[in-house]
Structure of homogentisate 1,2-dioxygenase:
Amino acid sequence: MASNKPAVAAPVAVTSTAHPAALAKSAAEAHAAHHPNNATAQPPAAFTYRYNSGFGNEFATEAEGYPGALPVGQNTPQVCPYGLYAEQLSGTAFTVGRSHNQRSWLYRIRPSVCHKPFEKLPANPRHVRNWSDAECEPTPNQLRWSPFNVPAQKEKVAFHEGLTAICGAGSPEARSGIAIHVYTASADMDKVAMYNSDGDYLIVPQQGALNIRTEMGLLYVAPNEICVIPRGIRFAVRLPEGPVRGYILEVYSGHFELPDLGPIGANGLANPRDFLYPMAAFESDVPNEGASYTVINKYCNQFWAASMDHSPFNVVAWHGNYAPYKYDLSRFNAFNTVTFDHPDPSVFTVLTCKSNSPGTAVADFVVFPPRWAVGQGTFRPPYAHRNAMSEYMGLIKGAYEAKAEGFVPGGGSLHSIMTPHGPDAPTFQTASNVDLAPVRVADGTMAFMFESCFMMTVGKWALEESKKVQNDYYTHWQGLKAHFDVNNKEGDKKKLKF
Ligand SMILES: O=C(O)Cc1cc(O)ccc1O
Ligand SMILES: [Fe+2]
């Protein structure tokens, strides 16, 4: 969350065509030694990625070559440096308390208002206008999806065209609820920008890196990294490595923040300094006069388009604490038991979007990273359970510790409120018999969960038309046999067979 101490963050990269991990070779090597699963790809040299670091910091940044583009000591001078326009982007109500207030000041070639009227785009069967529609199904069944197909290059599906709503609840109108999407794409957003009026997007690439141009600058986000594009910020996605697939968590209220650490102390889980924010960069390859740009807006879950005769990525300098950011999941500093029993998965929370009910999240983003398992006398995989929260899970790579098969990278599962689930029969069998030496678990794996207090319905396309729902999912638990023997009154363990 926003720090109470507004401090201008030190840049982590002044000029680089490289990923921050490549900033200092020795540092990168040291990192790689401790984070063996960090397979973050290097971005192409054609783009320059420059970041500041520190979650929720107050940043001040000017595009390279335009020193002094930020006004000094005031936000709205009579005439801004370089003849730029000053524009405020508010991420919270003006009057929100200082610790949670978010806004940025953008200094741009022309203000955002210079566009033609928006026109509504035709309805798309992969979108959901209203999660309470009769065709969205609330279901108490365990649901699992096989991976959605990634379009071929020649199909030319851009990121904004490949958005597919899976499940959700509530509405942007009421500023209450969430949506979970999958995206698949095979083409760059070319002269097209998008923004979401409905809420924040937390994007989890699963296949293929994303080059995301935002109003605040460029982000390179590879699988095993995530990014957050807050409400209203315009962005365009390019695909430097070809076709992509990934997941999106959208929250209709609030913003993501780091979870409180309680007794853990001042450090651990996702550390604030590992969050990277773009430095100012504007689009120089598009002439600002005579160019044609389309801006797509998701507004109350409907898509609209407006044209502009210049690039919306025309911010030469900005300052503030409302901006997109990225985070490398291999930096997650996991905590777990060093004695016994399986802790609740909240111990792996990367980011949370709080509701007004203390301790109950609109949505948590939780990961299951590679780590050591050392619990003694313990059934180590996730336990059988029924939850007061909804659990959507996805897999970036590898294999998830509670599921022997069927849950594959790019696939997903939904276990709704009070829907029973847990380790499948083969996992139970193996984990009940395994030797409890310290072992590495989930090496080469990254599973995640979007956990939410909302009771979600499932979109018609995701449930039926996609044909990706695994109808035999429930059978994976049917092999869980009763071991209780009514005649074994002494509870003699030796008589138990697993
Ligand atoms: O259902 C799941 O696999 C997610 C999960 C993991 C875990 O370690 C404990 C509880 C839980 O819901
Ligand atoms: Fe669960």
About this structure: The pocket of fe (ii) ion (ligand 2) is lined by residues 385, 387, 391, 415, 421 (CB under 6 Å). The two ends are 47 Å apart (CA to CA). Residues 1-40 have pLDDT under 50 and may be disordered.
